[in-house]
């Protein structure tokens, strides 16, 4: 059997489309942005992928770095030229002549312009680099408050934790990052938000009632991104996952969980 070529982070370099796969689910399972996969494979219609097609996956070394291009126009600051000095004998006629010279200077004297380069305006989202190396520098907070009703379990295929709460309760970004998915196209997750924090980690927030952020939007830690709901589940709750290179990991290792 031919070995599957893998990237240095352990993820395969290709994925063969299986029954039930969507571009969103493939990206989620590998910790990627679905738009990166689409661009790499020249997929125009993100909703259609051919069964059995071999898709190239972006590698950690080739992921595009988020950059913010800031264009700033020079500030034009008028600078007056030095006054001209004329020596004349002190007479009424001379005083009148000097006053006339000053009036003429004010009317016709050219103004020099000094161009000073403006300091670039760095927007908050420019600080987020989704290709930063590791998650050790990430700061995580609880995405919402409430009773922990389900814990992570690899053996039981529970890929995250579930937190009970009230309908409309605030859901916040557990750490700063970029929204790579906001929608209801992943089966079993209801209205879902996925945030990519760096090239290693992403987090997922499922079963929401309302989604408050859009794909491509940068969010800060603690920013409200959704409202709790019960879409695609039978109880009002938040299903929360942290994934490392697309593989679910126990959120208890990152969050200050209080077991009920």
Give the helices and strands, then pairings.
Elements: E1 14-16, H1 23-30, H2 34-40, E2 54-56, E3 75-79, H3 92-108, E4 112-116, E5 148-150, E6 161-164, E7 170-172, E8 177-183, E9 191-196, E10 201-211, E11 218-219, E12 224-228, E13 237-244, E14 247-249
Antiparallel strand pairs: 1-2, 3-4, 5-6, 6-13, 7-12, 8-9, 8-11, 9-10, 10-12, 10-13, 13-14
Describe this protein's structure:
- This protein is an alpha+beta fold.
- The protein is 12% helix and 26% strand.
- The protein has three domains: 1-58, Roll (Membrane-bound Lytic Murein Transglycosylase D, Chain A), CATH 3.10.350; 75-116, no CATH class; 124-260, Glucose Permease (Domain IIA), CATH 2.70.70.10.
- The chain has helices at 23-30, 34-40, 92-108, and strands at 14-16, 54-56, 75-79, 112-116, 148-150, 161-164, 170-172, 177-183, 191-196, 201-211, 218-219, 224-228, 237-244, 247-249.
- The longest helix is centred in the middle third of the chain and has 17 residues, at 92-108.
- The model is unreliable at 63-81 and 109-133 (pLDDT under 50).
């Amino acid at each position: 059997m031919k070995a599957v070529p893998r990237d240095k982070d352990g993820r395969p370099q290709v994925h063969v489309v299986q029954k039930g796969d969507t571009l969103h689910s493939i990206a989620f399972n590998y910790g990627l942005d679905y738009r990166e996969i689409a661009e790499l494979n020249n997929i125009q219609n993100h909703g259609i992928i051919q069964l059995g097609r071999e898709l190239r996956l972006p590698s950690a070394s080739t992921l595009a770095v988020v950059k913010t291009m800031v264009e700033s126009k020079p500030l034009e600051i008028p600078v007056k030229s030095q006054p001209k000095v004329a020596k004349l004998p002190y007479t009424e006629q001379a005083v009148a002549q000097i006053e006339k010279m000053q009036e003429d200077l004010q009317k016709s004297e050219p103004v020099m312009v000094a161009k000073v380069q403006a300091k670039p305006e760095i927007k908050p989202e420019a600080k987020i680099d989704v290709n930063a190396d590791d998650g050790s520098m990430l700061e995580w907070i609880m995405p919402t408050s409430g009773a922990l009703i389900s814990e992570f379990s690899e053996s039981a295929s529970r890929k995250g934790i579930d937190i009970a709460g009230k309908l409309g309760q605030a859901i916040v970004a557990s750490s700063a990052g970029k929204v790579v998915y906001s929608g209801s196209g992943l089966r079993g997750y209801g209205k879902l938000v996925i945030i990519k924090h760096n090239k290693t980690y992403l987090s997922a927030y499922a079963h929401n009632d309302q989604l408050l952020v859009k794909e491509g939007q940068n969010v800060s830690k603690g920013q409200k991104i959704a409202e709790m709901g019960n879409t695609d589940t039978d109880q009002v709750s938040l299903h929360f996952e942290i994934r490392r290179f697309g593989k679910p990991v126990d959120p208890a290792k990152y969050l200050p969980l209080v077991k009920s």
